[in-house]
Amino acid sequence: MLFRPLPDGSALAVSQPAHAWISGQLARAWGGPVAGRERLDEIFILAAAQHDIGWLPWEAAPTRDPATGRPHSFVALPRAAHTALWSAGVTTAEACYGPHVALLISLHGLAIYGLIPDEARAPDDLAAVRRFRAEQEAVQARLRAAVAATAAEIADQSAILLALDLISLVVCGTMGRAPRRTPPVPLAGGGMPLSLAFAGEGWDRLVVDPWPFRDASVTVECVARHLPPAGFADEVTMRHGLRTLPPVRIRATLLRG
Question: 81-129: per-residue pLDDT in tens?
Fold first, then answer.
């Protein structure tokens, strides 16, 4: 789960699959002269929208973080549980959507875990990540043999997915308001990062430069839950509260830099 902190101590809680839905919306809008292609393939758009498919069962019954009284955040969940969810997501994706989607989700998982160096991890977390890495490298070797795309095409798709994931995190508010840069993405002029910066004081306008989308602006949205400032006393109360809180819409428009 992701959280956008609010000034009064409350927060907007966004599920991992809802955040991934924004990635899918961005993938569908990707294209044009700067991007160097008219549009992305449907199989990639599906992978972008479903890249957190493994989190569906957990988000339906999240575990409580005793440090906050809220559901565990994506980064706070112990890596043993975290990697198990990601492994299950790859398996589910292959069963439901085939090897191409599963391969992109598996590669994305390794890319996410690669953002933190191994030496910075606690021993238990490091052991879990190493097990996941070895498991997924074997899975990827099998999946690659079943996918028609070339290694270069898969590498480009993985780079775009990582960037779309970051843009969605920024839109959801879990990265704060500071300007950000994505990892390099393949564009018509070669690989380069995208700069991201909010316009004004709100969260509803995000400036992107260079502009890799077909239209002059792109509006994305997802559903969140508004959590009260105080945490929940126990897991049963927390899960009930999450089910009964009314949905809140997160909406933002991306603008050309």
Answer: 999 999 999 999 999 999 999 999 999 999 999 988 888 889 999 999 9
List beta partners, residue 196: 180, 208
Report which of 134, 191, 135 is spatially closest to residue 162, judged by C-alpha positions: 191
Peptide bond into 210 cis (omega under 30): yes
Q: What is the DSSP string of the chain?
A: -EEEE-TTS-EEEE-HHHHHHHHHHHHHHB-BTTTTBS---HHHHHHHHTTTGGGHHHHHSPPEETTTTEEPPTTTS-HHHHHHHHHHHHHHHHHHH-HHHHHHHHHHHHHHHTTS-GGGS-HHHHHHHHHHHHHHHHHHHHHHHT--S-HHHHHHHHHHHHHHHHHHHHHHTTT-SS-EEPPPEEETTEEE--EEEE-SSSSSEEEEES--BSSSEEEEEEEEEEE-SS--SSHHHHHHHHHHSPEEEEEEEEEE-
Which long-range contacts (C-beta less than 8 Å, at least 24 apart) are formed by 119-124? Answer: 121/79, 124/78, 124/79, 124/80
Size of the chain, expressed as the number of residues it contains: 257
Q: What are 4's strand-pairing partners?
A: 12
Tens-digit pLDDT profile for residues 186-238: 999 999 999 999 999 999 999 999 999 999 999 999 999 999 999 999 999 99
45, 48, 50, 53: CA torsion to nearest 10: 160
pTM of the prediction?
0.96
Q: How far apart are CA 246 and CA 219, in angstroms?
A: 22
